Amino acid sequence: MDLSKIKTLIDFVGQSNITELTVTEKDTTVRIFRNGKSDAARPDVPAATLADSVAPTKTSTPITSPIFGLLHTASAPGEKPFVALGDLVDVGQTLFIIEAMKVFNSISAPRTGRIVSLPAVDGGEVEVGDLLAEIV
User: Fold this and answer.
1) Helix (H) or strand (E) holding 96
2) What is the CATH architecture of 60-136?
């Protein structure tokens, strides 16, 4: 499935009242879901971008939280996030920082690929195993 079709599906979910859409084409399945939080929580993000998640289920690599703590998507408040939806990342590249008991733990990309899902929210609490991102 090409990226223009995926973007069209994201736009559709963002403009409708549905909360989840799954589409399969050939051997690729794309699942788009709205996390149910209001857009007021993320005023800097368009409704159908990070609030909704696009995840090819066959070849994606999930990045999950190894610890409980506060998620930081940038090196400091007001700074540019480490990654954005659609970015190409290299193995070892910093994706997030999780703050636990005043210790800052860097979360790195386990492989090279494209970020296709960013369901975690900057400044939000994450638990062990919470999905932070997916890479294809």
Assistant:
1) strand 94-100
2) Beta Barrel (2.40)
